[in-house]
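$ fold --in a.seq
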Amino acid sequence: MKPFTLSNIPGKLEWMNTPLDWKIEPNGSLTPAGSLTIVAGPETDWFIDPAGKTLKNDAPVAVFAPPDEDFVLSARVRVEFASAYDAGSLQVRVSPDLWAKLCFEASPQQPTVVSVVTRGVSDDCNSVLIDGYEIYLRLSCTAPAFAFHYSLDGKSWHFVRHFTLGKLENYKIGFSSQSPFGLQCKVNFSELKYRPGGVRDIRSGE
């Protein structure tokens, strides 16, 4: 599949794994920065089970190389939940066994903010339950560390996780959909924002 571009995202995006379907919406009054919709196919995920029972690396991810050492990437994420663990996520990808993702995921209770940091195996953490199908997710880097935040309104950000993936070279970031136990999962990413420079205070989200 050919690389493509999105408004407000610097550089071309390319696919890791082919989605079941995808589309780009142009700029408009409802999506002023455009939007990206990704449909993951059946039983797709990125996860390396720490118990050694499961290794999944087949969910579609659209990634690009950030041009800045420090940056902030955010999006409004709407997920059409249909099965357990359906999710939309922002991802950092270094290698097949070194990566991280911030998810809006259908947990057994209700939609949940979930973070996964993988260094050989995946460290999976549920953070907060969310009422609804839409949330804002944010990934930031103040090298060599990353931070994950979520927001209900795109203005006030709440801290989820602070971590490092080691020395940062030739890594990429982007957008993903997954459906580990379902037939498909449709996720829309809108209000896309990228800016150089990290977050001043990761605990407060400012």
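$ fold --in b.seq
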Amino acid sequence: MINIRPFVLAASLAVAPLIAGAASLTIPTSARAASAEDLDRDADQALQKLYSSSPAAAAMGKQARAILVFPNIVKAGLVFGGAYGEGELKRGGKVEGYYNSVTGSWGLQAGAQSYGYVVFLMSKKAEQYIHRSEGWEIGSGPTVVVVNQGVAKNLSTSTLKDDAYAFIFSQQGLMAGINIEGTKISRIKR
């Protein structure tokens, strides 16, 4: 029996610099450390784009206690991967603070992509958690439901029962694979 681990490791080490180089060329400036003004502008534009493409998101935005907006997340990986982006927490249309979203992953994966996401904090529990925790690890704390087009069609004011709902939008690039991920959202200074 042939042990393929050395071949996989060698291939990973050979291709990783190529993917990292390609990702660095495609990373928009909004994914790099942005000023508060840049984040404000990009978050407002991203939220308007989401609202115009999803009536469910627009309706949810009117009911949410607060909204986390990450206009641009950049993700790249080859076996090991990561994603990073910066955004802001809005309450009543005003910025309450700035946050980053950091994801680490491991598994069968290759590629690079960028996307935006918005998390609507619907409950007092979710809103308090983001303020009092050292960072929100998705999968722990309040329940977050990732909304796809099928789920969005069935959402109404009477069916919104969870703590938070996330919409992913503006996906560009190609990321393929099966992996295990963890995401942490933490407050940053701007």
